[in-house]
Model the fold of this input.
Amino acid sequence: MIKDITLGQYFPGNSAIHRLDPRTKLVGMIAYIAIVFLVTELPLYVLPALFVLMTTLIARVPLSYLIKSLKPIALLLVFMFVINLFMVTTGDPLFDWKFIHVTQGGVWQAAFITLRLILLLLGTSLMTLTTTPIALTDGMEKLLTPLAKLGFPAHELSMMMTIALRFIPTLIEEADKIMKAQMARGADFESGNLVKRAKAMVPVLVPLFVSAFRRADELAMAMESRCYHGGEGRTRMRILKLQWADGLAGLALALMSAAIIIGQRLLF
Amino acid sequence: MIELQNVTYRYEDGASPALEDVALSIERGEFLAVVGHNGSGKSTLAKHLNALLLPSGGKVLVDGMDTADPKLTLAIRQKVGMVFQNPDNQLVTTVVEEDVAFGPENLGVPPQEIRQRVDAALASVGMTKYATGAPHMLSGGQKQRIAIAGMLAMEPEVLVLDEATAMLDPRGRREIIETVSRLHREKGITVVMITQYMEEALAASRIAVMSEGKLLMAGPPREVFRQKDELRRHRLDVPAMKELADALRENGVDLGEDILTVEDMAQAVCRSLSKS
Amino acid sequence: MPIVVEKLNYTYMQGSALTDAALKDIGLTVRDGEFLGLIGHTGSGKSTLVQHLNGLLQPTSGRVTVDGYDMADKKQRRLGRRLVGMVFQYPEYQLFEETVAKDVAFGVRNMGVPEAEAMARADEALALVGLEPGRFRDKSPFELSGGEKRRAALAGIIAMKPKYLVLDEPMAGLDPLGRRAILATIDSLRATLGCAVVMISHAMDDLADRAERVAVLNEGSLLMVDSAENVFAQSELLVSVGLDVPQVSRLCMELRARGADIPSGIYDRAMMEKALLRLFGKGAEA
Done:
């Protein structure tokens, strides 16, 4: 069902990776993505791959769990591999049969593109697996705070994200209840063409929207009753403080990018 | 502690006033129940206690502070905590203890102290075990206890429960009444409980009865429930045991005037039997 | 012909959005026109069970047939579902149409009934639940008060003329007056339409007054199915499985604990009155 998505799901734990400052993980993830794109020669992907492997081990996240996050895009990966395999025709031909031409260049490119996608996804999954939604929004708020001085609504965005994350499971549950109630009245969500099915969602979307607005209203009252008055003067129970472990993580990423740049220069 | 002086309130689209000339004094440390039929104004009254609504006429003073003064709103809301009906629509974040911390964070309490307050508040409502869990996995009664903890963390002097048990099952209702009674007993918090359940009102030391926007009467439960016919006329029930006692009296068995709970009845019956 | 539940087992899917309780080996029959009460502690599986009655959920093993239609078969399920009208908890949250009449007619239209007849049935249903069609027909459902919305939702199911009416805690969140009003509506609906009623409720007093049989669920299993009298007389057992018993039942248990000579199993006020009067030597002999 809807809850089967492990992409973005938090895996509880107390490892060194879990305890890293969320800002480090956010910035680190962006750096990691940039690093993966830095690589232009397939063999050098071994470095990011090792990085992911080591991080997963330190985080004590089961490898199988991490691999599961590839499930939603498994089809896409296969598709991309196949497309590149047959479309790219550089290099020595390896296989020829009727209209199917597979060249060495094709195999290389297919592997390259697919591996890049896999590594990107695994890296981002690792981050969401080891960081709670609250920590993520806290980290983002802290990172964007300097922009707040220029008028950027960092706190408001962060609050919105927190509330949205909090209500997603509640709204999913409600959508399910409404669906069942309408099905009990003979509503059919399964048959018919796209237009018909879209129309069939109206009896679910309208009550859901109305309910969401009502919730927002009540939540606003509750927040005001708890003296919420915007970001000014707000303290936080959890303070984010960079530790030496964060420095280490940063160093590891820096070393990896250096190794890749040098490696590509020297070997290729 | 809280004084309502001739409070009148009209909703924007309201034909008749939701509250009409209500005069009520809520004493420090008391446990007051506010009952009334649907639409009697009891919820509207509750929202005047923490400046969520401002009176159209009259004044509301919280510890001397006028709710109409916007400069005092935050101070008033810190003193008067409010828990609402829908358990879901009060929880703000994805982790229980973070939610309880929301109030103190808004007040600018230093981080170390927030931590202490959160732990103490969760302990007061018996939810320490669930501190790092997700709110949406909890039962209705548990969610309401978290909401109460969220208020306690702000160290209020008054706790207002606006029909906080209306959406709960019997077990959840009992959880909340027990928790609130205990907080009143052990910490001396003033409690104002808006409820439609007569049995819940019995936990209070004083009952205020609302009807059609007016304050009908206010007094200890025994006094209030003596006026059965008046209450009936205003669409309210009396506790089941009182009905039973009255029925018995009509048939010649007089167990005394003030039987309200099962305990009362059982004691009275046994006492009467041992006499004869 | 009845609804027959045979050896129903249900295990909830791992990671489903709703916490569907498990059901173990349920065997139950809902007879034509009967009023069956369904009680059980929170999480005992009441909602899960009733959702099997109209095929919203499929058993992991076992069978559910409605008037002979096997609810496991997709085609038959559609036909069986038309016979079972289900009103969920807080049904006012399912209203969505532009007008009350349109919303009430929604279920009827889904049955393939032509527009004119559907609207006529909507008017009928509105009248039956105490919402005067002339006044309410063209209003937006979102303009109604809470109690009116709930009646409108109920009308939406009634308009489908179900043979079995399943109500999941129809009185949840209502004040004493509202509760009495809804109960009166349910009573009159039953009298007018002749439908069977399956009602989940925490308020045993209300069930005691009108249920012919009561089924008690505990941890997903059927503890007992018996006449209302027999079930409610077993106060101690009901309390032991986490249920809330009426005050007079608690008084009965309390008095017996203190040694008073009161018969066990008293669950309504009239019975208690009689017993107490007899105790004091004032009552007429039964």
About this structure: Residues 63 and 80 of chain A are 24 Å apart (CA to CA). Confidence is low (pLDDT under 50) at residues 1-7 of chain A. The beta strands of chain A are 93-97, 100-103. The two ends of chain A are 47 Å apart (CA to CA).
